[in-house]
Amino acid sequence: MKLYGKCPLRIGEALITMRKSLLSFLVIAACFSVVSAEQADVKPVPQLDRDKLPGKQVKVAAICIGFGGERKAKLKEAIDQLHTAGRNGVDIACLPEEFAGTNAETIPGPTTNAVAELAKLYHMYVVCPIREQAGDKKYNTAVLIDRKGEVTGYYRKVFVFWGEGLNLGTEGVKVFETDFGRVSILTCFDLNYPELWQKCDDLDVDIVFWPSAYGGGSPLNAMAILYHYYIVPVGAGNIIDITGKTSPRIEKPRPKQFIATLDLDRAFAHHDFNREKVKKMLEEHAGEIEVERNLSEEDLAPWWLFKATKPGVRVRKLLKEYKIETLREYQNRSRKQINQARKEGRRI
Predict the structure, then answer these.
(1) Residue where a domain stops, chosen among 235, 263, 291
(2) Of 293, 289, 246, 296, which Cα lies nearest the Cα of 265?
(3) Which residues are 254's β-sheet partners?
(4) Are 187 and 97 in contact (CB under 8 A)?
(5) Whether residue 219 has a cis bond before it, omega within 30° of 0
(6) For residue range 122-177, what is the model confidence (pLDDT) as tens digits?
(7) Total domains in the fold of the chain
């Protein structure tokens, strides 16, 4: 009798699970059918051929469709935007935090599975933020999906905002290796905590993606200036250059989407100990690299900013060849060595 008493419960649970899976499938299928019809006549742009371009270029997209909302409508909007990003040759696209609502789901799950199809179709990375269900805990999580449509990593928000009702991320800042460079992800309220941005610098990242429910403003520009990496905010689409300024070359292929091509090879170097080495490098590689920015009345920082101007040339490779540290390398090495000297009571 006990056996028969359990069977209906198990069957009922199985039917509920099947029903949820079917509903998720139907939502995803509906999104694809509508979007594919809209995109049918759009001619795609090929992705960048980095080997034929100066420096190390990558095309990024900030998709600013906002936080939360009704799941079916927001997932359709996200898929529609990802079609646009893919057809514009984007290498990596970023969606906002919890863009498809606040119902928690696993990784992988319905939202990441739907987004993964687009990542695979267009051979692009996608930062897909969700509300994650991990056992009995819930997190504000950004999932990184690779060009094959596979989950390659995740970041759980460290500084959860008041009232989110979520568990706090305990794994800290991570670095993700891609085929174009090193990236990290921070989320929304994380902006207010410099130690997280310093950690991104320690991890030697090229780009920090910042999925958020708001625009961020000048603190983001300040972080880019301090740490010399690009920042891709997904609140207002103000993609920020390593100089700390909003990129002047942002494309807007449709409302709520912002695309920029970033050169991850551009590099700063300090005037300290480098003047003769830089002079020699510029003389021997005239027409291949140039000084994009230098000490001036407008900017009193004693730094050079170099970029390659000839296809196949890499600034950072030349800097190593001439034993010139990048500004980040110089600052981080100095920090470690000076702190060690302090610990040992030595003079500098």
Answers:
(1) 263
(2) 289
(3) 257
(4) yes
(5) no
(6) 999 999 999 999 999 999 999 999 999 999 999 999 999 999 999 999 999 999 99
(7) 2
Read off the pLDDT band of 61 (50, 70, 90): very high
Same domain? For 74 and 145 the reply is yes
Q: Which of 210, 238, 263 delimits the end of a domain?
A: 263
One domain for residues 318 and 253: no
Same domain, yes or no: 229 and 292: no
The CATH number covering residue 92 comes to 3.60.110.10
How many Cβ atoms from other residues are within 10 Å of residue 37's Cβ? 9
Tell me which long-range contacts 167-176 makes (C-beta under 8 A, separation of at least 24). 167/137, 167/138, 167/139, 169/139, 169/140, 169/141, 172/199, 173/199, 173/200, 173/203, 174/203, 175/200, 175/203, 175/204, 175/205, 176/144, 176/152
Q: What is the pLDDT of residues 233-292, one digit of tens each?
A: 999 999 999 999 999 899 999 999 999 999 999 999 999 999 999 999 999 999 999 999
Q: Are 243 and 272 members of one domain? A: no
Of 38-47, 75-84, 126-135, 263-272, minimum mean pLDDT range: 38-47
Q: What is the DSSP string of 283-335?
A: HHTBTTEEEEE-S-SS----EEEEEE-STT--HHHHHHHTT---HHHHHHHHH
Q: Are residues 9 and 33 in the same domain?
A: yes
State the Cα angle at 241 between 221 and 188, rounded to 5°. 45
Predicted local confidence at residue 297, as pLDDT: 83
pTM of the model: 0.88
Q: Are 220 and 194 in contact (CB under 8 A)?
A: no
Domain range for 205: 2-263
Q: Is 340 helix (H, G, I), strand (E, B) or coil?
A: helix
Q: How far is CA 107 from CA 130, 198, 218, 273, in A?
A: 9, 28, 33, 49
| Conformation bin of residue 51: beta by default, left when phi > 0, alpha when psi is -120 to 50 | alpha
Quote the pLDDT of residue 41: 53
